[in-house]
Amino acid sequence: MPALIDVADLVKDFRGFKRQPGIAGAIRNLFAREYTYTRAVDHISFQIPSSEMVGYIGPNGAGKSTTIKMLTGILMPTSGSIVSNGFEPFGQRTRYTRTIGVVFGQRTQLWWDIPVVESFRLLQNIYDVSDADYKARMKRFDEVLEIERYLNTPVRKLSLGERMRCDVAAALLHNPPILFLDEPTIGLDIVAKEHIREFLKQINQQYGTTMLLTTHDLADIEHLCRRLMVIDRGKLLFDGPLAELKRRLWRENAVKFDLKDREAADRLEHTDIPFVTAERAGELTVRLRFPRETHSTAEVIRRVVTTVDVSDIAIEGQSIDDVVKEIYTTNTLVDKV
Predict the structure, then answer these.
(1) 228, exposed or middle or buried, with CB in 10 Å at 0-12, 13-18, 19+?
(2) Which of its termini does the chain have fewer beta carbons within 10 Å around, N or C?
């Protein structure tokens, strides 16, 4: 399948200059500035086929937002190339932006002092959306995002969660083939996050919308994306299936046991199984962690159930938080993952 987004050897440098102290330094800065260069994106290459949902994660300052701004045509790359939906984003920005949707979690594309519905009507005219399509999409947005109640409210009076629902709907009003999401759930409560995740999943399934998602909330990735790209200090550390990343960096297993009485819980908490650590997760609940290399999950369960009375068992998968933390703390690069 040909790539809808093709990024090759992408580089972005930002130029600044050293400020000299004092009045004399300020005068010198006017005539003889010493420039510095910071590389935000360092020779990144990737391809995204149509209909794929890709997570793009990294710590603060890793280069995520800079990449998104180049992909949307806001910034011009220092070098390298981008072809997105057949366009060069910065060079063909006017035509290109009509084919994409963008959501920046900390900035809104809605007009601040007018009712939400007026922003939607303006966007309908900007993107030449027919009345029939507008009505059908607004109905669809309300079914999942429940935005009808906000339509006559000025944007400035909306809560963050309410505004984000409207921002996501606005980005999809013209049914673009590509949607870029930069921290779309930042600052939202659990209910608001679930609404937005469910809506994005349905839009992808129904329309085949290609999505690139940057986030610090790894639950967004686990709910929406099968493919994950990890970036740090401008370099791409990993690009592949989320399941593969977990498999390669999954160092331990965990099993949670619900015991029938306190005595059994106390006994299991002080287990003498080699290489197994126990932690109390409740009055009658104990979680056992153990290296995958030394024990199988079945072996640990078998040893536990033959020594104490167990009422329930839950096998827990490793959190992606732990996986990504290991990449950052061990500086694990792609060829080492």
Answers:
(1) buried
(2) N
- Give the tens place of pLDDT for each residue, 80-113: 999 999 999 999 999 999 999 999 877 888 999 9
Are 303 and 273 in contact by the 8 Å Cβ rule? The answer is yes
Q: How far apart are CA 176 and CA 99, in angstroms?
A: 5
pTM over 0.90: no
Residues in the chain: 337
Contact assessment for residue 177 and residue 4, using Cβ atoms and an 8 Å cutoff:
yes
CATH class of 252-317: alpha beta
Nearest to 302 by CA among 294, 292, 291, 310: 310
Which helix (H) or strand (E) segment is 241 a member of?
strand 235-241
Is 336 a residue whose pLDDT tops 50? no
User: First-to-last CA distance in the chain?
Assistant: 26
DSSP assignment letter at 154: B
Indicate if the alpha-carbon torsion angle 64, 67, 69, 71 is positive or negative: negative
Amino acid found at 162: E
Topology, domain 3-8+48-247: Rossmann fold (3.40.50)
- Residue carrying structure tokens 């997760």: 281
Give the residue from 210, 245, 223 showing the smallest Cα distance to 49: 210
H helical segments located in 76-228: 93-96, 116-126, 131-145, 160-171, 190-207, 218-224
Compute the distance between CA of residue 53 and CA of residue 181 in angstroms, rounded to an integer. Answer: 11
